[in-house]
Design a protein that fits this description.
Blueprint (H helix, E strand, L loop, with lengths): L1 H12 L1 H38 L4 H34 L8 H16 L4 H25 L1
Organism: Halopelagius longus
Pfam family, one: DUF8173
Protein name: DUF8173 domain-containing protein
Length: about 140
């Protein structure tokens, strides 16, 4: 349920980022996943290479923190995506469900899926990586 709490916090603190990231996944989820995967791999390699050098360590530490924060935000976006999908499937009511309900529905589904060996880890990885990639896309469009 920690994922649900983080998702609610992210949606409350950055509602525009949340909506834009969710829309990015709906528009092109495969690309968002591939961007998230690529940046995760390249980012880890760059941070290790920076950490090897003495001067680069000054840059590596903020890099690790930035990747960790963006990873947590991306995971929260993924949780909200799963929650919206599940509620869209099971709900026939018109209108947007409450963010808290969406977040906890997504967290509950991901927690249940996590109980299945291998599949649970794979689903959580794909959901988090896709959210991470979507957040990077949105931030790049804003500031890039």
């Amino acid at each position: 349920m920690f994922g649900g709490i983080v998702a609610v916090i992210v949606a409350a603190v950055a509602p525009k980022l949340t909506e834009q990231s969710l829309q990015r996944i709906r528009d092109d989820g495969v690309v968002a996943f591939l961007v998230g995967l690529g940046i995760s791999i390249v980012g880890a390699i760059v941070i290790v290479l920076l950490a090897i050098t003495g001067f680069g360590l000054i840059l590596a530490i903020p890099g690790v923190i930035a990747l960790a924060v963006l990873g947590i935000v991306g995971s929260a976006i993924g949780t909200l995506l799963v929650g919206r999908f599940v509620l869209d499937v099971v709900s026939s009511s018109a209108g947007e469900p409450d963010t808290v309900v969406v977040a906890f529905a997504g967290a509950l589904v991901l927690a249940v899926v996590s109980l299945v060996p291998i599949l649970g880890s794979l689903v959580n990885f794909v959901v988090s990586t896709t959210g991470f990639g979507a957040v990077l896309f949105v931030l790049w469009e804003r500031h890039g």
